[in-house]
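Sequence only, no structure available. Ideas?
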Amino acid sequence: MSLQDWLKEGTLKPHKTSTQEIDALLKVVARDIADASIELLSEDRRFATAYNAGLQLATVALLVSGYRPSATHGHHWITIQSLQFTLGSSSEKRRRYLNACRKKRNQTDYDRAGEILREEVEELLAEVKRFREEMILWLKENHPEIMWPE
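Reply:
I predicted one. Tokens follow.
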């Protein structure tokens, strides 16, 4: 599969992003990282919130690449899988990790509570913080037309 294949099948739609849209998403990421750091919240909520920050970063890469997911079932999966095309093969480990977190987040959101360990939250939070820093560098290098306040 490729982004073009997903476009043809309707899983993705063409999209022209803006500085404002990317800035807004990066603010969501910053908020989610801060919220996921609140130790008074349950590990389940912290994990789901940190996961959302990672998902939004993958969304940024997809949007600046000219696509957005359709409002269909599985848009989290598509957004995460798209990292292999938007960020390239260097994102493979992160893509696999975020996909595993997606499955775990689905369990904790829909099936059962109390399955998330503190160590899992801390690991995901650290990964998302790294991803955010790398995304900002990637945007500066590959999409300098997208300017946002730091």
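The chain is about 70% helix and 5% strand.
Hope that gets you unstuck.
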